[in-house]
Amino acid sequence: MPNWFAPGRKLAFSTLLLSSVASVALAQNASDAINAGEINASGGGAGTTVGTQLPTPQQVFALPQTVRVIDPQQTQSLSPLAGGPQALSLAPGAYVNGYGGTGATKYTIALDGIGQGWGGYGGYTGGASLMITLDGVPLVDPATGLWASASIPAMSMFQGTTVTYGPGSAKDRWYDNIGGQIEFTPLAPTATAGGTIGLTYGSYNAQMVDYSVNSGTISGWSTILAGQFARSDSYRVGPDGFANPSNDYAIYGKTVKQFDDGDLSFGVYGARSAGYRPQVIPTQANPGISINGTSAAGTVNPGTLYSQQTSGFYSTPAFANYEKWDVNQLWTVYSKYNRAIDDSTAFHNLAYYVREDRLHSRLNDAFPQGASNVSEYNNPYSYWFGDKMDLTKQISFNTFDIGGFAQYSLYNTQQSFYNNQPPFNGSRTNPTGHYRSGNFSQIDTGVFVQDDIQPIKNLHIVPGIRYVGFDMHYADMSGSVFPNAPAGNNQGALGNGLPGAQANTFTAAEPSIEANWQALPWLNLYASYEVGYKTPQVGGGGGLYQSIAPQYAGLAKSAEYQVGFKIMLDAPEYGLRKFDVGANYFYLNYSNQTIQTALANGSAATSFGTSYYQGINFFADDNITEALHTFVNASIVNAVYTSYMSGSLASPTYFNGSHVPYVPSMTLNVGADYKFPIGQVIVDPYMLYQYSGAQYIFNNVTVAPSSQQLAAYGTLNVGVNAKVPFTLYGQDRALDLSLSVLNATGNKYNAYLYISSGGYFGTPSGGYGLAYPGAPTTVYASVGVSF
To answer: Could you write out the three-class secondary structure of 442-498?
Structure first.
């Protein structure tokens, strides 16, 4: 989880690594402990880690917040090729949607109904509103508010995932914490040298190699290098045998220097994920859609009608009729610094630089033929850098945190649609369809003060206030980037009669108050009220500063309160070993939303709304016996738009009272594993059942939520791990073997469904359903060794 930071200035990349970053070593209360940064977890003995650690159950128990940690004991029940989104799917209230079977392709995620990421899905009207961090570094594009989920393509180099619900404490927030924060904590260096290497092979020709190498402590420095490479075909295959392959790689390195009174660390992480994206598929046969595409006149080319009922549940068109190549690349360098100034004062600082590049390239699209936009070249990029710091000071029964952050970002929207065939004769640099290229620059700042008041030993009251500022600038570059393109196709501001240069500045105060009372040694009661703001989404084809004037822009606001309890006890006589259970009620009001809906021709429709989300989250972990571990994560959520305005600003249409789309009424996952010896081999079979309740869907005809629903579905994963000890050069080693079967019952279900307006396949009218089917039965086998 990101922590203490301070107002900074615009940084030059050449000086970035000279800045510092941190999380603190003062753990005077549980809130400090969970956010502790580069610390030696267990005194520096053999095999101990030296670096950022996942919060312990004891630390989570003592927090005045709803926090859930997803660790490897839970994620082992997922695919070995699972990425960050799949790991998140185990958290209470989490919903994950993707069109591929591995982390290389894109996913849209949601937490208690608040969404993030983009996977080619429309209708996630509460999207772009969760903060994502890696070792505390923000990975969310400040302008679009979006996270490229494929930037975490595999979990092999991560300790686990920490999920914080709601805007969070004033000192921990960034610029997009409307619904919560998700921290991916990478592996930490160890005090002794060693490493691991693993190999995986599975269904659809899936392959992965992952590794980690630790240097041990050398002259006070401890360093780790980890990485992975994977590739896989899709379970969606065309009639020509084209299997929509994907591939990804990631690399991570970190070095930590420990001092008597603190530490200094430098980190680097980079990932590139690429894959072909299969098309959505009609759920029922449509006479206007053939697997061979449509003609220029909109009539069907000869061939089987393309739908789950006619061409096959998992079918997709041939490569010659449709292909879309999708690449996401992200890298970051960062530095952390922690310093205990005295016994009651600590300083913490984080400096970082992040670069993100995307590419959507489509050359073949027979749906429909003869259009000016059958090909696409979308190559936007972003970068952001900044500094965050804070000072922690304990005075009597108060622990103060004072600090802030400053960040600069730039986002370029470049995209062109074209047709290189006569009579259009276009190219990606000479678009014959829609095009755009705009620069959004933004300076985000925030300063905070927070006090953890502990009047008695078992009571914490934590008031906080944060003052945020957002300075936004837009410049339309379309004319200079595409000088020969038709002016009428420009989606930028100049193509819509707006000024080519625009600016907006927003400021707001974000109050919060949290409290927890440890009523009994094993019972913690807590409550919180937190307010957060974020800038409206920009980018895409149209929308704010492009087709909508700047006076309609405003900060989105989240106001959430929670009440809950946590229980932690060890009572083996009752089958409660390391028993950890908790539940909370939440109500979040999300106001002044700017909602972007991408359309098939590359443009976007903008709507405005206010919604509320309320429900209950529940989790439990227990070792029923020494060998049997179980866990449960569940939620019930109701999400409704109190106001939703679609259509033009001059003649809007309202859909007030509609349910927020893609919020399952209930989510549930139940898992268990049982360890037992066979000779010297430790065998560990496991299972995981995941369930998503019915959910309302989006209607592209009305560009609004629909009253129709996607049916509930569930999947069962089973598998077995085995740890085989052996001795090499006099050292004890272990061979890890694994076999996993996902969706073991072969359940056929649609993970996503929306109502088409007809634009995607070029039909004369819409109103029919388009879906992405969930993955069928998938099998993986893995082998790994430690050294």
So the answer is: EEEEEEEEEEEECCCCCEEEEEEEEEEEEEEEEEECHHHHCCCCCHHHECCHHHHCC
